[in-house]
Write a structure and sequence with these properties.
Blueprint: H1 2-18, E1 21-24, H2 35-41, E2 47-50, E3 53-55, E4 60-61, E5 67-70, E6 78-81, E7 89-92, E8 98-101, E9 104-106, E10 109-110, E11 122-125, E12 128-132, E13 135-137, E14 140-141, E15 148-158, E16 161-163, E17 166-167, E18 175-185, E19 188-190, E20 193-196, E21 200-203, E22 208-210, E23 213-215, E24 218-222, E25 226-229, E26 235-237, E27 240-242, E28 245-246, E29 252-254, E30 261-263, E31 266-268, E32 271-272, E33 276-278, E34 286-288, E35 291-293, E36 300-302, E37 320-322, E38 327-330, E39 369-374, E40 382-388, E41 392-399, E42 405-414, E43 417-423, E44 436-444, E45 447-455
Parallel strand pairs: 1-2, 2-5, 3-6, 4-7, 5-8, 6-9, 7-11, 8-12, 9-13, 10-14, 11-15, 12-15, 13-16, 14-17, 15-18, 16-19, 17-20, 18-21, 18-22, 19-23, 20-24, 21-25, 22-26, 23-27, 25-29, 26-30, 27-31, 28-32, 29-33, 30-34, 31-35, 33-36
Antiparallel strand pairs: 37-38, 39-40, 40-43, 41-42, 41-44, 44-45
Length: 457
């Protein structure tokens, strides 16, 4: 028995020792000359790490159990561009979980083949996949899933961007999911196009979708932002659906036994169709503590009665700071803020913003004030404004959602009056940080002030 245990331990140690990091650089200075070459030799547990640069590769095949990531963590730095020649990358029938981190996938193209070829940017089938801080931009599938297609898989998406993708003949311009589960957290779906479900199209899928933004997606017929079909029952928590367009369900549409739940969401100013639409053969969706307002086709339509005043649902102007500029933070008196609604929750993905211009303020307040940051959301830089009632030492720091210090911006004696400090979206080592929520904390003596900032990529 002891020899058997020793053999197992040695085998485990050998497996750990065998894990390798394969470095790839555009100039050929890495361990291997291309991403394809690195993936071809990578084994479970290995990492393929890309130096910043644009890699002109397509039809890449992901290896089982491998992490593909950027060295800098900046998706704007490491870009994989298929140049409209074919799909960017395929991950199919992989027994070990895979990870993608800090990359941009762009230029993917799939011609129409009867609707069977899916995912121009990335296609994941029969795999457990985690994608963190990645961008899917400008990919075009003549069928479904312009940016990303996920089928028969578990997926965890965190802080990802889907913008300018198309799913022309089938829909799901940003994301198409069939028989998939998992979580989609703090992702943005912006200006994607498709016949149906331009931002997201789900079938037989029930992920949890949290703190996501669906903005200006263009669905020609059904589901401008989201289309749900065939027993899809996802849960949308604190999501924002704004300025999307479709004939039916400009914000969200359900069909064929789909039973989603919306909690703490904002569905506002969507175009053409109603904000929310349930087909006659679909049960009404569950909605609570949400705001539905200003949609061209009305708030609720199809097999869905008006939910205003029921379960904490509102029909009031959300008071966005600057919708035209894409700033979806809200004014201090917005009903979306916990203090502004009976549920006491944040409605939508964005908190308070609208930093005041203090340049010509006639009087200074008698207490330290952290006004906020603008723009918010921002990319790549934002200005944080605060006011000191007297000359004093102040420390301004940026933290990530886990409470880790990202950057110290100021720690010095400052004069009384308005102060403006710029953060360029980089950490203490000068590296661009991934998209997501960050906290600015101002310490002045015993006084602490904070504001939430949103970095989009």
């Amino acid at each position: 028995m002891k020899s058997l245990i020793l053999w197992a331990l040695l085998a485990a140690l050998a497996s750990v020792a065998a894990a390798a990091t394969w470095h790839v650089a555009v100039d050929g200075s890495g361990d291997l000359p291309t991403i394809a070459a690195a993936l071809a030799v990578a084994e479970p547990g290995d990492v393929v790490e890309l130096a910043d640069g644009t890699y002109l590769e397509h039809d890449l095949v992901m290896a089982s159990g491998v992490t593909l990531r950027s060295a800098s963590g900046d998706p704007y730095g490491a870009i994989v561009d298929a140049q409209q020649l074919a799909r960017v990358i395929l991950a199919q029938d992989l027994p070990e979980p895979i990870v993608f981190s800090g990359l941009t996938f762009t230029g993917g193209f799939l011609p129409y083949d009867g609707g069977m070829s899916l995912g121009a940017g990335m296609c994941c089938e029969e795999v457990d996949v985690t994608i963190v801080g990645c961008r899917f931009v400008g990919n075009d599938a003549d069928a479904k899933g312009g940016g990303l297609s996920v089928a028969h898989a578990r997926i965890d998406l965190v802080g990802c961007e889907f913008s300018g993708n198309e799913g022309e003949n089938g829909g799901g311009g940003g994301l198409y999911g069939r028989d998939c589960q998992g979580a989609i957290t703090e992702c943005s779906f912006v200006a994607n196009r498709g016949i149906d479900g331009a931002g997201m199209y789900l079938r037989y899928s029930s992920p949890t979708v949290s703190r996501c933004t669906f903005l200006s997606n263009d669905g020609w017929f059904f589901g401008g932002a989201v289309l749900l079909e065939l027993e899809s029952s996802p849960r949308f928590e604190h999501c924002t659906f704004v300025d999307n367009e479709a004939s039916l369900g400009a914000g969200l549409m359900t069909d064929s036994d789909a039973e989603p739940i919306l909690e703490g969401c904002v569905v506002a100013f969507n175009r053409d169709g109603a904000g929310l639409y349930c087909e006659d053969n679909a049960p009404p969706l569950g909605i609570g503590c949400s705001l539905v307002f200003g949609n061209e086709g009305g708030g609720y339509a199809g097999n869905l009665e008006d939910q205003t005043g029921i379960d904490g649902n509102l029909a009031q102007d959300p008071l966005f700071c600057d919708l035209a500029a894409g700033d979806l933070t809200v004014a201090a008196n917005s009903p979306c803020l916990p203090a502004g609604n009976a549920c006491g929750v944040l409605m939508g993905a964005w908190g308070e913003g609208c930093a005041a211009d203090l340049t010509n303020a006639p009087e200074l307040p008698g207490v330290t004030v952290l006004v906020g940051n603008a723009p918010n959301p921002f990319n790549p830089r934002t200005e944080i404004t605060f006011v000191l009632p007297r000359a004093e030492r102040a420390a301004l720091r940026v933290f990530d959602p886990a409470g880790r210090l990202v950057r110290q911006l100021v720690d010095a004696e400052l004069p009384a009056g308005p102060q403006t400090v710029t953060w360029d979206g980089r950490d203490t080592r000068g590296r661009s940080v991934p998209a997501g929520a960050y906290l600015a904390r101002l310490d002045v003596g015993a006084v602490i002030r904070t504001c939430r900032m949103a970095l989009v990529r």
